[in-house]
């Protein structure tokens, strides 16, 4: 224990030493020495519902504003009677091997006849003008992600000015506090503008911007919103005139921004935006600023402080964040990795609160009326990736918005199942939006993929595996069962092997006919993996809940007829039912490795041949990718137990895009100066995916045990992380030195037998343990039994080359903590 304690003190003291040397210490801050020149340099604040991008210009402060329910269009369904007319013809062509003909038919007959989803849109901007502040000096701005507060400071004419900005979780307004170190120095004008249709007025002592969202693809804009602003000044004078707040010679001023809409749910927009906005604002202004800030920080930290991550600090911590990103590849800046990891958690806390909407492709931050990909929910990878960090990084409650959306989709998706496929149950394709559309979106090349609801449904079982919450499982079992009912109705027997497969479908956004844009397929590997997981997990849920014994048997029988994973002629895991993979395919999606991550069907010990083949596939696919794809690959290489390759992808991710660093290249994919993922453009899933990947390098619990430091890179020889969560409800704190764990504490939320997997010997000082006996020790560790892979006679498999690990079992009681001493 002394050795571990020494390491902990060393890490803490090194951070403290830098903190004494300069003001920018090991605190988790994004900080800069100049204002944001564009949106990708501005800093995000959010409370789950309200978001803003803070630019920090001394003379002209801009807060670009968002509210999560400001979307174009209104309640609608994008399914028509003819939507599925070509499905039987497509199945026939696919099973005859006429793939190009099938694609041609799909392109003509399956294009959406209504709309491809609505657009998430901005509310507008709050603009504050400070005359004469253009000549400010000693400029500094930051985003403190330990407190969820953005700060701007500068000096002018011997006066020090400070701005604090946050989106209050507790008061549901955005608050901007303006102060100076001398009295009577706060003078400014504040107004609002928006690209939305509407107007600006003053009423009841407030500045009010009202608007209505746009029409889009035949759907009339129906979201009405109001942004209300009130200023409270200490000293001086604050008045409303000419549709602006004017503050003169105040000692300090506090600006409150409240935004609300008429949205009630996906089929009801009968709310009163003005009354809702006013109710938040009128209550917020009655609370003093110190209390409002303290309440906000306390609420936020109940989530954020659950996980601490420290892998050291070096001199790079004293440089602005954009420069640290630009130099990351050569400085090996460990603190920046920890900052990036925690920034992902910050973004999830700030964009996904219980009772709210899930984060879109851009979270809750979007400045464009016509956003990239409409800033919808892309559910053939991106929305799922948004929630990969939720359970393992101890933010389980924040999964709630996704679950609520799944409930909605399980209702709206019944019409699509019936009309398009003549099936029971529910289905949705590769995109949805605020209005919970479930029909195909965009061209069939990407959109004719009826597996989106299936993949989203996996999160329900994952949540149960981490929490053991049977009440939750019972509540959402109908969603799982309805998804299964759809596939039981639509599965088709393919003619060669008599396997049951989904047709038509695709392997998301990839092609398989050389030189042709052909994606429409039958029985793709990802589809088969998703079906295996959905049927298996739903059957287990029904067994746990003691429900539907006959239905469970149907699922079991159907699982036995699903197509197995196959190893093709290039020793690769096949992406399609036919051996159509190309070693030179560098596509950003690596969908057939779903079974490796986030699934758990591929394992070095249980399925070594599939493990080798999957690794071969990923090696062929290569590292260069869009931002979110790099995040996914970090998780893949962590599951391959290759920490150095995973770290290489983190280095690729932390490459500056679009910055203003002298003498440093800032082109290509990676990370924007404000730490947003650069697809490009910005997509938040890249941030979430990489945060999940870093956690996966340190802790895995999908393969029959809790594997500690499974993919530790050489660059992190010593470190400490507390608060990660393993399946079964085990909260893990661990410290390591020289690549070996020195201290370990485990809190068992649910009790039961705990199995640890690690590469070092250990001694436990509070309980008895035994060598792992090879039997699943806990139902939360239960691993799937997959069919043996079909292997091409041309395949040449590589040895797995995975280091042997030791396993230890010990009994736990719910609510108790267990401390380990490791040699």
UniProtKB/TrEMBL annotation:
Record-linked Pfam families: Glyco_hyd_65N_2 (PF14498), Glyco_hydro_95_C (PF21307), Glyco_hydro_95_cat (PF22124)
Annotated ranges, domain Alpha fucosidase A-like C-terminal: 700-768
Domain annotation Glycosyl hydrolase family 95 catalytic: ranges: 289-698
One GO molecular-function entry: alpha-L-fucosidase activity
Transport as UniProt keyword: no
Keyword terms, alphabetized: Signal
Domain named Glycosyl hydrolase family 95 N-terminal: residues: 30-266
Signal peptide, first to last residue: 1-19
Tree of life domain: Bacteria
GO biological process: carbohydrate metabolic process
PANTHER family, per database record: ALPHA-L-FUCOSIDASE 2
Protein name: Alpha-L-fucosidase 2
Organism (species): Pedobacter nyackensis
């Amino acid at each position: 224990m002394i050795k571990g304690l020494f390491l902990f003190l060393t890490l803490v003291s090194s951070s403290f030493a830098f903190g004494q040397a300069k003001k920018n210490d090991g605190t988790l801050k994004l900080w800069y020495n100049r204002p944001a020149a564009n949106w990708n340099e501005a800093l995000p604040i959010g409370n789950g519902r309200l978001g803003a991008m803070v630019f920090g210009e001394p003379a002209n402060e801009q807060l670009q504003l968002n509210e999560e329910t400001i979307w174009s269009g209104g309640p609608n369904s994008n399914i028509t009677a003819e939507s599925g007319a070509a499905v039987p013809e497509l199945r026939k062509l696919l099973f005859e091997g006429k793939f190009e003909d099938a694609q041609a038919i799909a392109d003509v007959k399956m294009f959406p006849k209504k709309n491809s989803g609505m657009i998430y849109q901005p509310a507008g901007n709050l603009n504050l003008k400070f005359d004469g502040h253009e000549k400010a000096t000693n400029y500094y701005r930051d985003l403190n992600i330990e407190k969820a507060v953005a700060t701007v400071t500068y000096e002018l004419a011997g006066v020090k000015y400070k701005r604090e900005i946050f989106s209050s979780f507790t008061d549901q307004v955005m608050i901007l506090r303006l102060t100076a170190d001398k009295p009577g120095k706060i003078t400014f004008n504040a107004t609002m503008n928006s690209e939305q249709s509407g107007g600006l007025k003053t009423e009841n002592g407030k500045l009010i911007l009202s608007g209505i969202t746009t029409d889009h693809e035949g759907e009339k804009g129906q979201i009405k919103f109001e942004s209300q602003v009130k200023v409270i000044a200490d000293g001086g004078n604050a008045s409303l005139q000419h549709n602006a707040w004017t503050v003169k010679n105040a000692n300090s001023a506090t600006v409150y921004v409240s935004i609300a809409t008429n949205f009630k749910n996906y089929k009801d927009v009968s709310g009163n935006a003005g009354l809702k906005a006013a109710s938040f604002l009128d209550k917020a202004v009655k609370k003093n600023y110190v209390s409002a800030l303290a309440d906000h920080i306390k609420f936020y930290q109940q989530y954020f402080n659950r996980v601490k991550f420290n892998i050291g600090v070096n001199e790079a911590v004293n440089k602005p964040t954009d420069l640290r990103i630009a130099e990351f590849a050569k400085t090996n800046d460990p603190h920046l990795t920890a900052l990036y990891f925690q920034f992902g958690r910050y973004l999830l806390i700030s964009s996904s609160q219980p009772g709210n909407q899930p984060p879109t492709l851009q979270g809750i931050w979007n400045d464009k009326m016509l956003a990239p990909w409409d800033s919808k929910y892309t559910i053939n990878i991106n929305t799922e990736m948004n929630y990969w960090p939720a359970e393992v990084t101890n933010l389980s409650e924040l999964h709630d918005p996704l679950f609520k959306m799944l409930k909605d989709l399980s209702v709206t998706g019944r019409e699509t199942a019936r009309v398009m496929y003549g099936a029971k149950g529910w289905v949705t394709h590769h995109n949805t939006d605020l209005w919970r559309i479930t029909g195909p979106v965009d061209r069939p090349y990407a959109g004719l993929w009826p597996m989106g609801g299936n993949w989203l449904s996996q999160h329900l079982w994952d949540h149960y595996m981490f929490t053991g919450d049977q009440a939750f499982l019972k509540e959402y079992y109908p969603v799982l069962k309805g998804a299964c009912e759809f596939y039981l109705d639509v599965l088709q027997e393919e003619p060669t092997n008599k396997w049951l497969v989904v047709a038509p479908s695709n392997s998301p956004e990839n092609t398989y006919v050389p030189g042709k844009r052909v994606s429409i397929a039958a029985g793709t590997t990802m589809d088969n993996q998703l079906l295996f997981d959905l049927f298996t997990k739903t059957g287990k849920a029904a067994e746990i809940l003691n429900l539907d014994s006959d239905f469970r048997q149907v699922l079991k029988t159907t699982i036995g007829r699903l197509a197995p994973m196959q190893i093709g002629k290039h020793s690769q895991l096949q992406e399609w039912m036919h051996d159509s993979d190309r070693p030179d395919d560098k596509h950003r999606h690596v969908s057939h490795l779903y079974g490796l991550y986030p699934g758990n069907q591929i394992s070095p010990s249980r399925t070594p041949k599939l493990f080798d083949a999957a690794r071969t596939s990923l090696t062929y696919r290569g590292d260069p990718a869009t931002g979110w794809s790099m995040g996914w690959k970090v998780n893949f290489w962590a599951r391959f137990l290759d920490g150095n390759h995973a770290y290489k992808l983190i280095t690729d991710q932390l490459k500056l895009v679009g910055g203003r660093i002298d003498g440093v290249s800032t082109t290509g994919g990676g990370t924007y100066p404000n730490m947003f993922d650069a697809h490009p453009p910005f997509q938040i899933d890249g941030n979430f995916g990489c945060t999940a990947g870093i956690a996966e390098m340190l802790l895995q619990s999908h393969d029959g045990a809790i594997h500690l430091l499974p993919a530790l890179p050489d660059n992190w020889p010593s470190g400490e992380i507390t608060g990660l969560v393993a399946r079964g409800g085990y909260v893990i704190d661990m410290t390591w030195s020289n690549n070996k764990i020195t201290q370990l504490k485990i809190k068992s939320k649910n009790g039961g037998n705990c199995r640890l997997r690690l590469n070092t010997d250990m001694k436990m000082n509070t309980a008895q343990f035994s060598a792992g006996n090879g039997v699943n020790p806990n139902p939360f560790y239960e691993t799937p039994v997959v069919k043996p892979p079909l292997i091409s006679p041309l395949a040449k498999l590589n040895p797995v080359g995975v280091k042997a690990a030791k396993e230890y079992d010990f009994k736990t009681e719910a609510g108790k903590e267990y401390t380990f001493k490791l040699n």
